[in-house]
Design brief:
The structure is a single chain. By secondary structure, the protein is α+β, with helices and mostly antiparallel strands. The chain has one domain: YggU-like (Conserved Hypothetical Protein Mth637, Chain: A). 25% of the residues lie in helices and 37% in strands. The protein has 2 helices and 6 strands. Strands 1, 2, 3, 4, 5 and 6 form a 6-stranded mixed sheet that branches.
């Protein structure tokens, strides 16, 4: 499963693909949500861009997005507050 809902928070398992032509969700890949990121995987640039993209996509503050693992790997575990926008997104992507 590419996500877990725990109370009022959600955990996303994300497979990041840096150096892409644009920031976008690219579907479910194995047990992860694949996210293409424009920034290169250098000095945390891709992670910063990923947080910015998730914040903008789900209308949540960047400060409420937390890495629980994978900051230096392509597969990341990210926790954030669960809201209606994320609920719709999860439904659209399918479980």
């Amino acid at each position: 499963m590419w996500y877990e809902i725990i109370g009022d928070e959600i955990l996303f398992y994300i497979k990041a693909q840096p150096n892409s032509s644009r920031n976008e969700f690219a579907g479910i890949y194995d047990d992860s949500l694949k996210v293409k990121i424009k920034a290169p995987a250098v000095e945390g640039a891709a992670n910063k861009e990923l947080v910015k993209f998730l914040s903008k996509s789900f209308k949540i503050p960047k400060s409420s997005i937390e890495f629980l693992g994978g900051e230096t790997s392509k597969r990341k575990k990210i926790k954030m507050q669960y809201n209606e926008k994320i609920k719709e997104f999860v439904k659209k992507m399918g479980s």
